[in-house]
Design brief:
Elements: E1 2-6, H1 10-21, E2 25-29, H2 32-41, E3 43-46, E4 52-54, E5 58-60, E6 71-74, H3 81-88, E7 97-100, H4 107-114, E8 120-133, E9 136-149, H5 157-168, E10 172-175, H6 179-200, H7 204-209, H8 211-230, H9 239-247, H10 257-264, H11 274-284, H12 289-298
Parallel strand pairs: 1-2, 1-6, 2-5, 3-9, 6-7, 7-8, 9-10
Antiparallel strand pairs: 3-4, 8-9
Helix pairs in contact: 3-4, 6-8, 6-10, 6-12, 8-9, 8-11, 11-12
Amino acid sequence: MRIAVVGAGGVGGYFGARLAAAGNEVTFVARGRQLEAIRRDGLLVRSPLGEFRVHADAVVPTIADLGPVDVLLVAVKLWDTDDVVAQLRNHVGAGTMVISLQNGVQKDAVLRRELPAEAVAGGVCYISAAIAEPGIVVHNGEMQKLVFGEYGGQDSDRTRTFLDACLKAGIDAEISADIERVIWEKFVFLASISGATSAVRQPIGVVRADPRSRALLGDLMAEVVAVGRAAGVGLDPAFADDRLTFCDSLPATMTSSMHHDLTEGHRLELAWLSGAVADLGEELGVSTPRHRTVADILAPYELGEPDSVDEPIDADTDA
């Protein structure tokens, strides 16, 4: 297949490299030092499933440099979505399937608003992967899965063809007949664990071990379920309890990408996670005090490490 991967970070780099190693014609859209490294040395993937390097047939700096493709995977940070969609308008042909592997539940609405709605299929990914250094993607753990499907649940040749390409590339993949529900199910877990680990500044093991922070995590999940159900998504009312129990099976050191970005002083996807839950809840008349509080706590860090300020005056000091 002819596949374009917009965003050659941990997610896009890993799945794009797998597909390229299996013989598909993969073009990465990258920038900066990642672009230079892939051009020079290809892309190296370090994984418990085996280390491999792909010498990309093509890596380009902009979407405008892409040729016709069968599948276009969007794997950029959420704040880049509007810019990417604006560039995609003239590069999505009648036969192109666009799948966003981004976080959140608003991503496809943005894509479908600006692109032909029929071009966009829903998708989610399950993986922990990151750029260790330019040109090197590290896959943490063995989980690496794609789930995708047509909106409306219909079967299609294009999703079956892409599924076959994924399976031949060694990617755990499946087609869903209810992809909107699958996206929201991931969002219940992702938005909540991101909010809890970032607010507490600790991995999941610490969060789940303390009764009060565990209750916070459970409440965050319940709020997302309530918002999703109000939006008409078929989420099980008990799904939050199920995900909280699932958290007990995770490695104690596991954290979220937002917590990692917070500790590194990077920009946060806060507006599309806890911020989005709170905003959608307000629109739908669903109370989301826990997510609103998390969004407020993390607001100073949303654009990265805040500028230092003068040393504060101790309120207990006599004037």
